[in-house]
Design goal:
Helices cover 40% and strands 17% of the residues. By secondary structure, the protein is of the alpha/beta class. Helix 1 links the parallel strand 1 and strand 2. Helix 1 packs across helix 2, helix 1 packs across helix 14 and helix 8 packs across helix 9.
Length: 353
Amino acid sequence: MSQAGTRPSLAVTVGEPAGIGPEISIRAAWALRGEARCVLVGDAAFLSLTASLIDPSIRLSAISTLALRHSGLPHFGPDTIPVVDVPLDAHVVPGRLDAANGRAVLATLDLAIEGTQAGWWDAIVTAPLQKSTINDAGVAFSGHTEYLAEKTGTPKVVMMLAGALASPAGADQPYLRVALATTHLPLKDVSSAITRDSLTRVLDILHADLVKKFGIASPRILVTGLNPHAGENGYLGREEIDVITPVLEDARTRGIDARGPYPADTLFQPKYLQDADAVLAMYHDQGLPVLKHATFGRGVNITLGLPLIRTSVDHGTALDLAAQGLGQADCGSMEEAIRVALSMVRAQQNPPA
């Protein structure tokens, strides 16, 4: 693990090799090499070739997993990006998926988890992968978040997206964090999934990680209702009365500053958000369209509740862009994911009093 005053080490899994993940990982790691020791996890030969085509001045240095397990991460200066070699099984054609590489992609994630648990690096930053490639390789896989939870033995995780909002010149840049009470569920299943127990667990995880991983001593959380107008006193639904309000009242008795439920259509305004540290939305398309409209290309996906720090980009593999060749992809979200991981590492190293 890094010590105070040093560059934290971050494992950057490069994701689906046929997508934009390798390019944006290399570009972001190189751009931020003075701030973070980004360790790319992927096929070293493929990444070296990609780096040489992006910019011949980019220097990569390969490390075998055997050497890493035996001796740990060697020291590299800021002008070299280490790559832990996880060889692919098939030639990469940009924009074209190949199930033969599915298990190798998953192996990068396994190694990133192993390394974080072993103390080789301080956090994980993930480039986008293609779920279908891994499933087509014969491995049941529903996504990064679920896989990380399973591999770390974490019973409950929470998805949060975050990003900086536009602000007038010279003004402090406001930051929006939106966590979700439910994630990838059909809309018809959302109501039954929001129970007092599940919502309490989500709220507890959100509060705890805002303190521990973001260094916010007394986080203020604004919570949306589920129904239009937050149910209008039961006329448009009773979830606010029967579930959400009792959970918030109980949370406040335990020292969690959780307020609401607020109508989601009017909550996302500066006058409400300016003093909030996070918003807890009830379902995926209630909170995330607002955040992605305001921050897309600079947003970050964060998994809360894990015994490690994991951030990611706010977009997918963009196979169509990859097929057009290098130089089409924007690495802004990957750079922001690295910066957020850095800030979370430092906050965890220096907890609030």
